[in-house]
Design a protein that fits this description.
The chain is mostly beta strands. It folds into 2 domains: about 170 residues, Immunoglobulin-like (Sandwich), CATH 2.60.40.10; about 80 residues, Cupredoxins -  blue copper proteins (Immunoglobulin-like). The chain contains 2 helices and 21 strands. The strands form 6 sheets. A 5-stranded antiparallel sheet has the order 1-12-11-5-6.
């Protein structure tokens, strides 16, 4: 397949997914920034961005789904998404007046990088979802309003492009958004006669409590050292909505913080790494590093409702 044919094919895919080129679904222009490539054979492009709903309220989790196209000739094996949210206008009149006195840096919030390991062959498109928390209010003032979201994409460690597009956060009570469960397939009935078997009655198992999702962070930050290649705290119980901040005390090494049950995508700890636990449950993390021998140090985080009370 020729390179020119691949480029034409990807353009057609992008148009089919987004319905337009260079604009979002409401007709607002999207700014695109390209980066110089050290490896020109490795390239990716965000061909479309879709949110899970249109009426996102301030304080809820926003989850954009990114459709990433491999427009290079090398296979993409991992992706990093960096998100910066910058406030443009606020619905609250007094807050909007104060906004005009703030610097560009003060108006922006940087989200910790989100890492994926989605394999994308040249000439194909695959989606990834990158959720991040929005803030409901600050100093008693609602943060509903309009924002610019800057999404920067890196593939196989190489930064390839950034896209800036608008988003509106609506006022209102924060809702607990839970994904709609996928229905289980209907079992196939076997028409062959089956002999009657007397079953031994088994005790009814205790039901596992359903996970609780809380959209509003508590604002509590719990620092945990990673020192001598180990978690300083191996078991901890926190409230849902609390934030854990891992702090690297080894300046010579970065760590891959891996949730063993794949409930959370792999994260990279360089100096500091924060994560807000918005869903109850038990999370087991391993700290992996370069030239590691043997099993990693592990840490269990138990997330409960009102665990501190």
């Amino acid at each position: 397949m020729s390179k020119n044919f691949l480029i034409i094919l990807l353009i057609l895919i992008a148009v089919a997914l987004s319905g337009c080129t260079g604009e979002d679904t409401k007709g607002t222009p999207i700014q695109v920034q390209k980066f110089d490539l050290a490896n020109p054979n490795l390239n990716g492009q965000i061909v479309d961005v879709k949110f899970d709903r249109d009426d996102i309220r301030a304080g809820e989790i926003a989850t954009p789904e990114l459709f990433i196209a491999n427009i290079g000739s090398e296979k993409i094996i991992n992706e990093t998404v960096e998100i910066t949210a910058k406030v443009k206008t606020l619905d609250d009149t007094l807050a909007n007046l104060y906004l005009k006195t703030m610097s560009e840096e003060e108006k922006s919030r940087i989200i910790d990088p989100i890492n994926f390991q989605t394999e994308i062959e040249p000439g194909t498109v695959k989606p990834v979802s990158a959720g991040f928390h929005t803030i409901k209010e600050m100093e008693g003032r609602s943060l509903a309003g309009t924002y610019e979201i800057n999404i920067t994409l890196s593939v196989n460690g190489q930064k390839v492009e950034a896209r800036i597009f608008p988003i509106t956060l609506h006022p209102g009570e924060v809702r607990e958004i839970t994904p709609t469960p996928t229905p289980s397939p209907t079992p196939t009935v076997n028409s062959t006669p089956v002999p009657t078997i007397k079953k031994t009655q088994t005790p009814t198992p205790t039901p596992t409590p359903e996970p609780v999702v809380v959209a509003t962070p508590t604002g509590k930050i719990i620092p945990i050292k990673v020192i001598n290649d180990k978690f300083a705290i191996t078991n901890i119980q926190i409230d849902v909505g609390d934030e854990i901040q891992w702090v690297n005390f080894n300046p010579d090494d970065n760590y891959d913080i891996v949730e063993m049950d794949e409930k959370i995508p792999k994260m990279v700890l360089k100096n500091r790494l924060s994560y807000i636990f918005n869903t109850t449950g038990d999370y087991k993390f391993g700290a992996y590093y370069r030239n590691m021998k043997g099993d990693p140090s592990t840490q269990t985080v138990s997330v409960r409702v009102n665990a501190s009370k």
